[in-house]
Every structure is written in C-alpha cells, then in structure tokens.
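Readers outside the structure-tokenisation community will struggle with the description of the input data as it stands. What matters is that the chain and its backbone geometry are given together, residue for residue. For illustration, here is how one protein appears when written out as sequence plus structure tokens:

…
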Amino acid sequence: MRVLVTGGAGFIGSHTVDLLLARGHRVCILDSLAPPVHPDGRKPTYIPDDAEFILGDVRNRNDIVTALRGIDVVFHLAAYQDYLTDFSTFASVNDVGTALLYEIIVNQHLPVQKVVLASSQAVYGEGKYSCEEHGVQYPPPRTLEQLERSDWEVKCAVCGEPMIPQLLDESHTNPHNQYAVSKCCQELYALTLGRKYGIPTVAMRYSITQGPRQSFYNAYSGILRSFTIRLLENLPPVVYEDGEQLRDYAYVGDIVRANLLVMENEAADYRAFNVGGRNPITVLEYARTLLSITGRNIPLEIPGQFRFGDSRHTISDSSSLIDLGWESNTPLERIIREYVEWAQAQPEVPYQSYAAASRIMRQTEVVRMVK
C-alpha cells in the first residue's frame, strides 16, 4: 500500500515510517519541519531515502492535495503540542488541519481506505477517581489555590477526602488544557466525519511516549528528555509537585506496532484506543531509576514548583487494544537506557535551549511556585 504519514519527520511519525517501510509499504511524508521539534528547519538525517518527503503544512490545502495523490492509508500524526498560551495555534494545526484532510478526501472522492489519528491520553484531563464513600468521579482540574498551598491530591466533591486514581478506559473524556481540548476536537472531527462518509478511522490515545529521536527542544516532550538533559550537564532533575504523581510510560517501538495493528485490523475501525505502558510508576521512582541507569549520584531537586494544568495521576487501561493482539512489552529500564545512549551519541545536547524553554514556561506562569 501507499501510505501518507503527516508529521513523519517527528518522533512517533519517523518510527512509524521506518516500520511501514520495513513491512514493504511505500511511504510519503508530509512535514513542515517547524520549531520547536526542528529548530533548524532541516530534514533530520534519520529520514530514509526510500520515503518521499514533502515539505508542507497540514493547514495548507495545496500541500494536502499533493500529499494525498495515490494514497491508500493516512497516518495523521502531525500536531502542535506545547504548554504555551498560543491557543489558536493548537486549534489551527490540530483541528483545522484534521478537518481539511477529511474535506479534501470527501470532496475529491479520494480512495483513502483508512485514517489513523494520533490522539493523546491528555483527553482524559484529571481522569477517573474513586472515593471510598461516594464512588467513582471524574473531577475537574485542581484549582490554582489548591496547588499553591501544596495540596496535591484530587479530592472528593462531596466529602473533600483524597480519592484513589482508577485506570482510564476509553468511555469518558474530560480535557482541561488547550492541547487536550484540541486533541479531543480532533478526534471528534475524525471519527464523526470518518463514520459519516465511510472512511474507516481510528484514534490512538497515546500515553507518555518515549524513545530515541524525542526532541531536545520541545518543552512539552516529557520527563525522560528533561531529566536526561539536566543529568548530562551534571545538574539534578527538577521534580514538579511532590513527585508522587503516577504515570504510565510507553515505548515508541510498542506505539508504532499498535499503529500498524489498527491499520491492518478492521475491528479497530471507528474506535478510539488507549495505547499505554506496562506499569504505572511515580515520578520519584522514575527519577531514581534514571539515576541508577546513568550511574549519577545527584540528589533530586523538589523546589515546590508545579505546572498549572497538569493532571495528578494518569494511568491508561489498554485492554481494548490488547484484545486485538497488541502488548506493551518493553520494560522501563530498556526505554531509559536506549534514550540515554541515543542522547549521548548526538553531536550536542542543547541545554541552553532547554533552559530557555523552562524560563518561558515560568514567565508565562505555566510553571508556578507554591506560596
């Protein structure tokens, strides 16, 4: 088959391209090479020569029309993600770009057989919790006032007691930041239009995805990148809140196997799937694992900072995807070791860019201090 991968020069996109080519598909990449993922605007050296590359934007009609010629399947992985307050960019890239993709497929009667959309665990917002006395709840985000007094746990709306986090299934979304809202809208466009016009569509709600090629520059891109950059500068990892947040982390290789599984399986059509990690772990446990693997004896820094808009505990239930034959079988230690080895092999680890992104998040009050 001939497959289009939007965002195919990015982290998950490029690994998806590699697996598609390895399985004998012909691949076209559409990517704008935009910062902060590609700060120099150059095509990464890991993009294979076997893949056709189109420099273009998912918001540009002509670029989409060109990229869709002769395409059987689309992996729509291009997205804008960050913590910054340019809200309209989230909507224009993620939502307008998705609507335009379907508009062109429908109006030009293109024979696209399937669209696989990159969504996110972020669509669940604060997630699902249980109070021993008052049962299951889907709480709103924690208030600024609560966070400023270092009161981290999610509380029952009735009795005010801390609640127990539950596994997230695909049945209930509750986005509460600009990125999450855009991804939820993106899903609605894709699944609604796909179903209405007979274009099989699948939304993949990735957990925190990690592995080689994860951008050094994107402030959003996660714990492994930020902790590793600081450790390579012999600086302590900075832990937000108290470090007891629970997360599940997925290996990029497992993620792309899931992508191809749903591409090939009709039972996945018109559904959303969690694509999660093996076991939940706290941020503190994660940091200590990273310290052990890197052999660094550096105390963690827990300065009382928090990212306004973060969820407290987020753990996906991937059983729906597992029922189709997928598994997340990569241990965290391997994920960390592989990323650190990749980072150390790069010509430079741009600590100054990371530090600048951190300053911007503080200046825009995305990152705040307790009072």
In short: The mean pLDDT is 94. The longest strand covers residues 114-120. The CA atoms of residues 129 and 166 lie 5 Å apart. The chain has eleven helices and 16 strands.
